[in-house]
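ok trying this again, last paste got cut off
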Amino acid sequence: MRLRELRDELRIADEQLLHLRSDADDLGVDAAIGVVGATSEHRRAAEQAAAMEAHRRHLVDSITALEVRQDQLLDQMSARHG
């Protein structure tokens, strides 16, 4: 059950990350052309995207660890019943 939940959370994080990156990119353009207030908004948006990227990496690492553990357990079960 935990693996499925992590995969669902990863899917959601991927969707959110696409949105956050898009917002940061748009605000970066606004900041580059001098739109008032865009620089600070761009910084905040970039920070949010970076935080989501870190969260996504954590999810991927957690999924990988659970998959490795699952494989190990399956190998142990196969060895016992093989």
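PB: full thing came through this time. The radius of gyration is 20 Å.
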